[in-house]
Design brief:
Length: 475
């Protein structure tokens, strides 16, 4: 008998093995720069960022210490500014955002190019003097570690990109007006970046926080699995190059809302494919996928009066039994009954690009529907090719064919016999009864809510050696 020392040694070895293992999350949601750009742009529109730019108080900004505090220059400039009736942004645009790794490589830099035209009105000329202004705002997104070790995405500052400011006249006018305009432009050069930082950066931060909140909400949308549901939640975010990866935990809940299974980080492997040009991908670990299939296909009992439902199959079954026992075959009446029990849930086995489902099945044959004891009971290990595909925004699964890989005689009331004699007919029964029943339950598919929520019409999917990957279908 093992002593305390042996037990302690084994526990120590196990702990050391787990400590050295790379723990994989149940799922990973990878967000490429295109989806980040699109969602942040949408949130900037929602917060009326362009309207904020159009309301920038340019005139009051350049009137604050216009000559760097030098009295004589200040008086000259103030006399020039007195000739300005108004100075306003007449048009503003936010050009296409750019997402790239930050200079330190520890976060994301979101570059937001701004294109604006300001109108300058002065009594010196009847037309509006137009000043073209271009600049770029850079916002930083990082992963921050809190006091308890929890990590989360944060907005880590916003400023004008160095050297991005360009101010020019759209149209040249008279020498006097040009001189006035150039004076105004020289005052706008220091004032505009400050205005953008104080007026626009808070809007960019609010847009990011809204985007982040929407993302977390979308992650937590329950995935319907018949009467059960699967729920994901954020474990921790990481930034890898220009990709945000959200490591997700998962839990399975029954129809009463009770958690029946938790999924956390474990030594089970998870291969997260490189995102490349795909907007996003959801990579789900094999055990989580298997639990989803289990929820859709719980253990059940199927009872069929074979002669009524499948008379040709009933006739072939009788012929096969006649080889074993003619007396038993003669007892089979018009209400001969087949009972199929799936006592254990299907087990999903993934390989690169393919999947197989293995099931343990009990099959019993009764002479009539009034018989209390079966002729025989067979234990069958059956397998099917599992075909994953997508339809609109739903992940679909279908079992193709079914084979009896192993068959065992559990008990017999008609004498001992080799169960291999009934292998073909039992396979036909499973194909005709069990397979359509299971495919019928799988027919509704599994909704992937983020596909349409992010503006994509269809989903796509593929398998790795240890995971199922869902992406948007791109043309």
């Amino acid at each position: 008998m093992a002593g305390p020392f042996t037990f302690t040694l084994l526990c120590g070895l196990l702990a050391a093995t787990l400590a050295g293992a790379t723990l994989s999350p149940p799922a990973v949601l990878s967000l490429g720069r295109e989806i980040i750009k699109e969602r942040l742009t949408q949130k900037l529109n929602n917060h009326d960022a362009i309207g904020i730019l159009q309301q920038l108080p340019l005139l009051s900004a350049i009137r604050e210490k216009p000559a760097g505090g030098i009295p004589i220059l200040g008086n000259v400039v103030n006399s020039i500014l007195n000739h300005i009736i108004w100075l306003k942004i007449t048009s503003a645009n936010i050009l296409q955002l750019q997402v790239e790794p930050s200079d330190e490589g520890q976060g994301l830099a979101v570059r937001i190019p701004l294109d604006m035209v300001a109108g300058l009105n002065t009594p010196l000329i009847k037309t509006i003097v137009e000043i073209h202004m271009e600049t770029e705002v850079q916002a930083i997104i990082r992963v921050n570690t809190g006091e308890r070790g929890h990590t989360h995405l944060v907005f880590d500052g916003c400023s004008n990109s160095q050297g991005s400011l360009r101010i020019s006249l759209l149209h040249k006018l008279s020498f006097l007006v040009n001189s006035l305009a150039h004076t105004v432009m020289s005052l706008l050069a220091p004032a505009l970046p400050k205005l953008v930082k104080t007026q626009l950066c808070p809007v960019i931060q609010a847009a990011f926080e809204d985007m982040h909140a929407d993302l977390l909400h979308l992650v937590r949308v329950p995935v319907s699995l018949g009467s059960d549901r699967l729920e994901f939640d954020l474990l921790s975010p990481t930034i890898n190059g220009n990709i945000i990866q959200l490591e997700l935990g998962a839990k399975l809940l029954n129809s009463h809302g009770d958690v029946t299974k938790w999924f956390n980080k474990s030594a089970i492997s998870l291969t997260v494919p490189y995102l490349d040009s795909t907007p996003f991908s959801l990579t789900v670990r094999q055990d989580v996928v298997n639990a989803a299939i289990t929820a859709l296909l719980p253990p059940e009992e199927l009872v069929v009066l074979l002669d009524y439902v499948l008379p040709e199959l009933a006739h072939r079954l009788k012929s096969n039994i006649k080889v074993i026992s003619e007396q038993a075959a003669n007892q089979l009446g018009p209400t001969q009954m087949v009972k199929i029990l799936t006592r254990q849930t299907p087990e999903l086995l993934l390989d690169q690009g393919s999947a197989k489902v293995v099931q343990l099945i009990v099959l019993e044959v009764f002479a009539t529907n009034e018989a209390h004891h079966p002729f025989f009971t067979l234990g069958i290990e059956a397998s099917s090719e599992a075909q994953f595909y997508t339809k609109d925004d739903r992940l679909m699964l279908n079992f193709n064919e079914i084979s009896s890989d192993w068959i065992h005689l559990m008990n017999s009331g008609i004498g001992l016999f080799s169960p291999e004699l009934l292998k073909n007919i039992t396979t036909e029964i499973l194909v005709s009864i069990l397979l359509p029943n299971e495919n019928g339950k799988l027919r509704s598919g599994i909704p992937i809510s983020m596909v349409k929520a992010w503006g994509f019409k269809e989903a796509s999917s593929f398998l790795t050696k240890d995971s199922l990957v869902v992406t948007p279908a791109t043309s």
